[in-house]
User: What shape does this take?
Amino acid sequence: MAVVNIETDWQERAACRGPHAAAFFPPSKPERRDEKRLREDAAKAICAACSVRRDCLNYALNVGEQHGVWGGLSEAERRAAIRG
Ligand code: SF4
Assistant: This one.
């Protein structure tokens, strides 16, 4: 069985560490469309200034992250990026 080594050291420099983290993933309760857009926009604004954005997006695409904002893209945007 092949072992895939996915580098995650970049996570130490993630701008989303700490109190901002809640903006990056859906809440446990149902979320309206406008609430989701506002939450994702807030997360993407943090991603825009993050020094490891490219590493983060590559990681999310490589492991097939299904939820949340990673590398400045929502789950729907990552699916679209994969489709090309
Ligand atoms: S690009 Fe966004 S999700 Fe990725 S580490 Fe940076 S702030 Fe977090």
Summary: The chain has a mean pLDDT of 93. The pocket of iron/sulfur cluster is lined by residues 14-16, 24, 46-47, 50, 52-53, 56, 69-72 (CB under 6 Å).
